[in-house]
Amino acid sequence: MLAIRLDKQLEDRLASAAKRSGRTKTALARKAIEEYIDDLEDIALLEEALNNPDAGKTVSLEQMRRELGLDA
Hints:
Blueprint: H1 8-21, H2 25-51, H3 61-67
C-alpha cells in the first residue's frame, strides 16, 4: 500500500488525464510508476554493462550472423 501527496497542479493534471483516458487516477499512477522503475532498471543494466563490458556474453561476428540467419 502506498499513499502519496501531490501538489494541486499535478493532482489536477492526473485527474484530467484520467478523465480523458477513461482510466482511474490509481491506474495511471501505477502505470507511470511501473514505467519509471522499468526505465531506472534499464539504465542500471546499461551502466553496469558500460562499466564492465566483459561481464556480458560476447559472440564473434560470424556466430552472430549464423544465429540471425544472415549467412548467405
